[in-house]
């Protein structure tokens, strides 16, 4: 009887161990699945768009400014010009353009746009690290470098003419009932179509 009792107890321990291992593996698999779904796979458009809209509203309430990206780049460039002896704060663009001017206590290197851009870069870095997808990419050719440099210059210049990129000039403009946001959207799609044709013909072939 004692031998059978010990055997049953051992079998019960084995079954209990296997059950615990199964539960642990299942939970680990669910955690890994959720991790991949959140960090690696694309989110539904409805979810991503809703989160961006809510964050933009919160940003406007806290800073009295809508989400803009290239304005921070402009302010960073103006800060560099200040350091070499120029006075961009007195230029017409900054002194008369209320959208780009500095508020009380703000500086070109310390304002909401600079902080937002820094937060976006840090957040993007953390998300790629958590998803184990961070990697350095080498420039494939000199032609790619020239096209990237030229494209960046044209985009930067165009954002000042249109008062924003696809964030400030489109995403934040349309909810503000600004007509220029719809004009921006129309020509953005036209420009994307033309740009893709140029990209395929001259860079990818």
Q: Biggest β-sheet: count, sense, barrel?
A: none
Number of domains: 2
Query: How many runs of DSSP E, i.e. beta strands?
Result: 0
Structural class estimated from helices and strands:
mainly alpha
Q: What is the beta-strand fraction?
A: under 5%
Give the SSE string: HHHHHHHH
Q: What is the molecular shape?
A: globular
Distance between the termini: 82 Å
Question: How many DSSP helices?
Answer: 8
Low-confidence stretches: 1-9
Rg is 27 Å
Helix content: over 70%
Compute the average pLDDT.
77
Summarize the SSE layout with pairings.
Elements: H1 2-39, H2 45-63, H3 70-83, H4 92-96, H5 112-130, H6 142-161, H7 167-171, H8 179-203
Provide structural commentary.
There is one protein chain. Helices cover 71% and strands 0% of the residues. The protein is mainly alpha-helical. α3 (70-83) crosses α5. It has two domains: 45-135, no CATH class; 137-205. The model is unreliable at 1-9 (pLDDT under 50).
Question: Characteristics of this structure?
Answer:
mainly alpha, globular, 205 residues, disordered N terminus
Short description:
With 205 residues, this protein is an all-alpha fold. It contains 8 helices and no strands.
